[in-house]
Amino acid sequence: MYGDLGIKLVQHAKRTQNLAHLPPYQAELVRAVTREVRDLNKDVDDLLEPFQGSFDPAEDQAVAYTLLVNHISMRRNKRCLLAYHRTRTDKLEELVWNGADVIDLSGQQVRDGGASGSKGVASGDGSTSSLSPQEEDYVRQYGDLLAAYKGQWTDIDLTGSLEPPRDLFIDVRVLKDAGEIQTEYGAITLTKNSQFYVRQGDVERLIAQGYLQKLS
Amino acid sequence: MDIDDILREVDPASHGIPLETRDLQALTRLWVAERSAPELLNWPADGLFERVNSKIKSQIEKIEDMTGDMDPKTNFALIVIQTELERYKFLVRSYLRTRIAKIDKHTLHYLSTEELRQRLSPTELAYATRHQALLHNHYLSSFLSSFPQRLQNLNDTAGNVSMIDSPDLDTAVFVRLLREKDVFGRGTDSDTILPAANGDVLIMRWSSAKALVEDGDAELV
């Protein structure tokens, strides 16, 4: 039936909105929906062909309705595809803002795959990524764009925390070894399970990346 | 902050509000307004952000100068300045991020007419244009290129459905009146005209409040 595949894409998109990670790209579905559009378009062309451009909807209502249904189905499929891709790019943009990069994303998927028992897949390179090649390109380019925009505001650090700053210094606990960092007050070596009282601005990035935990 | 600053404060000749304070107030106002308004507001044209930026730079330099000093008094001042700087940076960051979020959401809408384009700063305009191009390319390479030619547009308005999404201008906002005025508000059932005094806080549709805010009769809260 027309549009059945389109609604599947929309359902995928809806589900994606509530997930923390990005589910695999539905390349098969996208291709199928695109094919449906092409077939429908071909039908439209075939239907219109005998009329040689002098088609009068009032005279031949059956054909007119078929055309209308085909046309609306095509538009609907297009909307479904756009919605699906937009949801995913929004998600990707969010990840870019949070400082993830494409390699990280693929890596994360490999780990997820390993955790869910499909260890065999994790050995492949790139095939485990849940992003389509086009999406990887997009993330890379968007990253560049964001970096360019951020470059205008070097002192602000646009990707910093959006929580209003309360204290200059905070207590943090180290969750993962992060090596040595340089601060204005000298170097600190961050070893696992140790606790520090540091300037928030210095460690924001590490908190976002999950190396440190903020203690309230 | 040194002795000159303190002297200047007690000096009656410069008793007006200093430019820095006014800038901070302006920035805070802009930030509050931008966060509550459903659509993108105008980018401040009077060079406010150039001033803010140079202030932030000079504060960073000052902090760097002071860091070497181990005197407890400077240390205390340092903490105060750093805290203030973090707050200032937060304001700017949050303001810019709010705008970017709005632009991302309705990119084509803000790029569609010259009047709307005017609201963006040059860097934001560059960002929006480039972002839209990226998105379009992504759609094209993912599926759109195999579509029939006449279905490839992203800004169709055929069939009474515009593909360009625009912000909902009828969302409710809170405004505080800055002078006495009869306020006209559009309602669901009927429209009303309400006499309001300076300082009154009203909730109304943004489409009705917009003119008041732009004329300076009210501010968003």
From TrEMBL, chain A:
Residues 167-215 form the DNA replication complex GINS protein PSF1 C-terminal domain. Residues 108-134 are annotated as: Disordered. It is found in: Nucleus. It comes from the Eukaryota. One of its GO terms (biological process) is DNA strand elongation involved in mitotic DNA replication. Keywords: DNA replication, Nucleus. Its main location: nucleus. Pfam families: PSF1_C, Sld5. CDD domains: GINS_A_psf1, GINS_B_Psf1. Residues 118-127 have a biased composition (Low complexity). One of its GO terms (cellular component) is GINS complex. Residues 47-153 form the GINS subunit domain. The GINS complex plays an essential role in the initiation of DNA replication. Belongs to the GINS1/PSF1 family. Component of the GINS complex. This is DNA replication complex GINS protein PSF1.
UniProtKB/TrEMBL annotation, chain B:
The keyword Nucleus applies. It is found in: Nucleus. Residues 58-141 form the GINS subunit domain. GO terms for cellular component: GINS complex. Its main location: nucleus. SUPFAM superfamilies: GINS helical bundle-like. Gene3D superfamilies: 1.20.58.1030, 3.40.5.60. The GINS complex plays an essential role in the initiation of DNA replication. Has a role in chromosome segregation. Belongs to the GINS4/SLD5 family. Component of the GINS complex which is a heterotetramer of SLD5, PSF1, PSF2 and PSF3. This is DNA replication complex GINS protein SLD5. It comes from Trichoderma semiorbis.
